[in-house]
Design brief:
It contains twelve helices and no strands. With about 240 residues, the chain is mainly α. It has one domain. The longest helix is centred in the first third of the chain and has 32 residues.
């Protein structure tokens, strides 16, 4: 097989993988909805009443929970879905993005200033950290963007690992916010739409649109990797 054929085959493989991921997400949501699991999980009134009981502080409570999940390295992706269900498709995405960004930044600050010695002793010799540290040393912000858009390293681990690198706080905050925005809004929006309108033709069209957006986003890290000479396989 020629080099050109290999590149074509790789591109086709990437597109198929992306389609498969979008399809799986859609199927999982559909099955959960049909089995009534969404009804059990969503209890929108209960969640809304809980957050509304704090008044305007309800948004701050949600964001605080998100920050805590990042700092204590707890799974935060489900919170984005909860945000969409509790606050609606758009507002849920906004508060989830704010929570995720502030949470990632809090972990970054803990690593850089609060418990640097302890964290460095725990992950300083970790192979993943060495790859991140080396990547930042060679490629700077480009490497941060690449790893935020492609989950080659666990999100929670990245937050602490980047705190030990030369990445500036302002740079980390800005690009973490930008790179996480699409995912936060897509998950929150889909969750909010399912709660509000259930499954419909409109939702399927939105899934397709989300798939296109994810595909376009997947081209960015490929471009960065090619331009910087980064072998993505070496990061796995």
């Amino acid at each position: 097989m020629t080099v050109a054929n290999k590149k074509t085959a790789t591109k086709k493989s990437d597109v198929l993988k992306l389609i498969a991921v979008v399809a799986i997400i859609g199927i999982v949501f559909f099955i959960a909805y049909k089995m009534g699991l969404v009804d059990k999980l969503k209890d929108v009134k209960a969640m809304q009443e809980f957050f509304n009981s704090f008044g305007i502080l309800g948004y701050i409570v949600f964001i605080g929970v998100f920050i805590a999940s990042c700092v204590f390295m707890l799974p935060g992706s489900m919170l984005t879905i909860v945000g969409g269900m509790a606050f609606g498709p758009i507002l849920g995405g906004v508060v989830s993005l704010i929570g995720a960004t502030l949470g990632a930044t809090a972990a970054f600050l803990v690593s850089k200033y609060v418990a640097r010695g302890m964290i460095e002793s725990k992950i300083g010799q970790n192979e993943m950290f060495k790859k991140i540290d080396d990547g930042v040393e060679k490629n700077g912000t480009s490497f941060l963007i690449l790893t935020r858009l492609v989950p080659v390293f666990p999100f929670s681990f990245q937050n602490y690992a980047y705190g030990l690198t030369k990445i500036k706080l302002s740079t980390y905050f800005l690009f973490t916010l930008i790179c996480m925005a699409p995912g936060a809004f897509i998950y929150a929006y889909m969750a909010g739409e399912i709660v509000k309108n259930g499954f419909s033709t409109k939702l399927l069209i939105q899934f397709a649109a989300a798939g296109i957006i994810l595909f376009l986003l997947s081209l960015i890290p490929k471009y960065i990797a090619k331009k910087k000479g980064i072998n993505m396989d070496d990061l796995k």
